[in-house]
Structures are given as C-alpha cells and as structure tokens.
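Issue 218. Parser rejects a valid record. Input:
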Amino acid sequence: MSVAAKATVNPFGVTKCDDFSDEEIFRFWIEPAGISAVHLLQPTRLMPMQVIGGKGSGKTHLLRYFSRPVQLMRQGSTRSPLVDRQGFIGIYVKCDSLNASRFSGKGQQEELWSAVFQYFLDLWLAQILLSQLPNLSLSVQEEIARRASDLFDEPPTDVPQTLEHLVGLLRGFQRDIDIAINNLPLTRKLDVRIKAGPSRLIFGLPHILGEAVAELRNTVFLYLLDEIENFNEAQQKYVNTLIRHRKGSCSFRVGSRLYGIKTSNTLEEETNRRGSEFDVLELDSHWLRAKKKYVDFSERLCIRRLQAAGHFSGTITDDRQKLRNAFEEPSSAHFYQDYTARLVSKYEDWERPYFRKLRDQLLRFAVGSRRLGVLSNDDVQPIIRRLQRPPYPLLEKLNAFLLYKAWAKRANLQKASESISKQCLVFVQSGGRKPSTYFSAYQHFSGDMLAQLTRETSHKVRYLGIDTFIRMSSGLPRNLLIILKNAYDWAIFNDEEPFAGKPISIESQERAVVESCSWFFEEARPEQNAEQVQRSVDRLAILFREIRYSDKPSECSLSTFSCPSQDIDETSKLSLRLAEDWSMLIRHVRGQKDRNSQRVDQKYQLSPMLAPRWNLPISRRGALALTAEEVNLIFGRAAEADFVKMKEGRIQRMNAPFKGGEPAPRQASLEL
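Output the parser choked on:
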C-alpha cells in the first residue's frame, strides 16, 4: 500500500490548544489520577493566582477549561445556564488578541497610553463578561443596562435597554479607540475620550449582575487573563493594580510563561507579594514534583488522542499496554544481550573496540609500573582476558570501567581485574538481582556504558519508547505531542502503520527525536542575548558529553550541575536566568548541599529535550559541582580557548592515565 493511501490524520497533529475549539478543549481535557482541575486553579477562591509555566506546559488549556463556554459543556444541558454548582463564571481573554503593542510610542507620552490602555482593557473584559450571560428577561436586562450606564462618568445619550444594546455600546467605544490609534500617524494626536474611570466596569458590572440576578448573587466572576507576557511593564502594572484592589466577588487568574512577569508593582508603585496579594501555580514545577502523576497524565493524554482518531477503544489498562507496545524498543533482558550482541557483531571478542582501547592505554601508560602490577607487555593480555564476558558486551564495558576506576586509585590492576571478574560472574549467576558493589555499579552506570558502547561501535545513541518520550518532555506536554507528531509522520513516510500494525520502527523514532530536539533548541531563543544563551548551553552540554564518554565518568547519568550563587558575574547570571526562563535549564528549588562547606548551592538540569543533541542522558542522577569561575567560563563571555582549557583540565582526570586524578588508597583494596 502506498504512503498516500495509508496516510490518515495525525492524532498528535494539533500541538497548541490555541488551535482547538471550545468543544475540543472540553473533549481533550485530561484529569490525571489524584489531581483535579478545580484543585489546581481553585476557581471559587477570591485570592488571585498567577499560573506560570514554560512554553507548552498546558496553561492555556487549563485556563480555557474554566472559561464560560466550556463550563456550560461540563454541566450539560440538564441544568439552567445559570443555576449550577460551579460557583463561578470564567471570563477568558487571550492577551495577545488585544495587540497591546499598539499602546505605546508614536510620539505620545506613556501616561497617556497607560490611561487609554486601561480604558480599552476594561471595555474588552466587560464585553466578554456580558457575552457569557444567557437569555434573561427583558426587565432584568433593562435594569442591568440602565445601572451599567451609570458606571460611565459621561453617560451615553442613548441609554441601552438590553444586554445586546449595552454590548454594542461598549463595542462602539472600543472602536473609537481603534480608529484614533489607526489615524495617529496622520493626526499626530491621540484623540480618545475616556468615559469611565479605571476598573469601574471590571468591578462594577459583576456587582450589578449579582444584585439583579438571584442565581448570580454568590457567584465569583473569574477573569482569566492568558499570555500576559504580551503586556509591557506599564500594562502589567495595571493588572497588578486590579489584583491588589479587587472588589466584591471578582478574582483573577493570570497565565504567563516563565519569563513573562515583568513587574510585581502596581501603578502606585506598591509591590504585590506572593502569599499576600496572590498565589502562584507553577505548572512545570508541579509536574516535576508529581512525576508519577505526570506519567499518568501523559499516558491518558496520548490515549485520548488515539481514541479520538479511532486507534484505541479498550479499557485504560489495555490501552496503556497498547501504547507501550506501539514503539519498537530493544529488550533489556540478560543485560541487553541481544541488542549489544548486534552492536559488536562485526568485531572479534579480543578486538572489541573498548578492549582494543584499554589494551593500547595499558601498553602506553601502565607497563613498567610495579604499583599497578603491570611489569611488562605480557601482563596486559591476562588483565583484559579476565574482563571478558563475550555473551554480555554491556558487562564487558562495565568491567573495563571498573578497571579504570581502580587505575585512577593507583591500585594493582592484576588484582583488580581478578576481583572484577569474580564479582561479574556472581552477578551473572544471580541474574543481576543479588545486591553487591558490582550490582550498584550496574544500577548507576549501565546507561552510560550502553551509550559508550553504542558510540564506540559507530551506532547512534537511541532514545526510544513512550516512557522515554514522557521523560524527555519534562513537564511540558507540548514537547511530548511534538515528538509523537513527528514519530507518526515519519512512520507514515516509512510506509508503516502507526498504532495499527507493527510497532513504530526504531528508525522512525530516531528521526522524530532528532527533529523534535532541533525544534526545541530553535524555539528556545530568548528575545535578548539569544546567541549568548545558546552558546552557554552548548558549552555546558559539551562538558557533560566529554565527561559521559570519558574512561571513568565522575558522575552517572550526568545532566545536572550545581554552583554557588556568589562570585558569578552578571552576564553568567543573566544567561542562567534566561536559559531557565526558556526551559533549556530546569532549576531544582531545593538546590544541592556542597560537600565541603555545607552551603546550599543552586542546582540546574539540562532539559531532557536537548539531550539527544549531544547524546546525553535524559534521567537525572549525579550532579557536577562547578565553581563560580567555571560557571563564568561556561555562561559568561569568556573566550572559547579559556573554556576549552578548563574543560580539558577536568577531563584529563577522567581519562587514562588519570593525571591529577584520585590519590592512591592507603591500603591496597578495590572499591567498586
């Protein structure tokens, strides 16, 4: 069957919920086990809230889920549009739809623009609020319209009699502002007549509605302002002022990207403080803390999309298994025996690349050392022979790694190889289940050794399977959807039948991951210092890569670093902050305790979405402790040569012959 004949609508083709209708927002909402949307947003609570998250964290979906149209879908048609138990009316507005950049410059004073913007925003929110109301009796509409007219300092000459007439009046006032701004290049004068004071409509209309409509008397009017990063600092100050001086049964939920909050000050230059004037829901951090729940959420998200496309139709348990089986992955049985055997199939046992490298290093650096127990060339072959375990290439790599560790400690390598060989045999005989120092080494470093083995045999380091994709997304559901979208498209291109026939091939998954990683890196471009930030991230990742693929990595699954907050230059601080704001780095709030001084350092993880770009791990285990000087060399404006010198100084301690490495132990012993 041709690709064209097989091609269907990609279940993951829509990755931005901006492209969803209200009905799709409702249909594709996923509520993971143990976390309700109401618990997250608390829509009936009067305390305002900032909803903060990286690009694709689900802010818009969450806020739109509480908008009035979706509210009505949730309660169904069996109840009155007003009489329900939800206790609030959600007034959703996407801030970029206001085109807020119009309200600045053009030769006009900022104070003038600020006043015009405030009036325009009030008119906008008032229209949206009134448009959410159902049909009311004419007498009630007349009362609301009449009292709303009194909110204006300059009452309309034609007093509105219905809600439709009132909305038309507000729209006309808004249109007058649009016309004045559009003609500003010609008139050079911003001719706008402000007919109502700041916030009077925003707080006044809910008060009128609560008194005029009995069912709304105890209702919270919830203004949902999404993507407030589109407002400049002065415009955000007005929103902060509304939050600080909110009245009656009104409240706010303000959605923003990590970098989007430009100020916490009000127009009066008072400072709104977290916990006093507002709460914060950090979606990324929330998911990173609740990893099991994020996995549950992600699986349900995928299954819901696939069910809607007609691929899955079973129970949630069955569909979870189908989801896992839909991706080709190498078996981890018997220490990845089948997979690694294919990797080394072109090599003889003795000439497997890791043993060839070890042999050359021993001949070059160790021969003649009485302390290392390598007196002549003839001592090298027995050492390597003891490390061999031909059916299990991954264990051979681990054995070589453990010998390198012994070498760095200046241990006797003959005795070390004997000990490693015995422990490896016991490990194999126990099926890898008996706790031991060898068992711990496998648990910690098998992923890195598998990556090294893959690279040394001229194969690609692979990132495969739904579990891997979920971990890569690191709390940002859009990242997961992007990977799956690309995997589906590549599967169709490769004449496969995704989610219907055989599992999506390793090749299609590889291409999808590479494409998704490139998309993420290009999208993560801060508005300022983009090149500096991306160069800094590149330097950090190169350092991680050099350590991971060294003879004796100092840390396992290295994707994280810690650093002091003092003595870091301003450029480096800015690069760190921007990298975090654009989700290239993930900051861990608890930090990392320094082993020597016991101070709590900052701790950051490189985004798992970027890991494939440098063949790095997606999991977080070991953390590399960086000094302030090293941080400045990576994230500051240091010359490339200075960074390389620092990197090579660190790496030489992890590669044979381990100059400047670990001191020899006082007693001859092997610590694995």
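Fixed in the parser; the record now loads. Strands lie at 49-53, 88-94, 220-226, 250-257, 279-282, 560-563, 585-587, 592-593, 600-606, 623-625.
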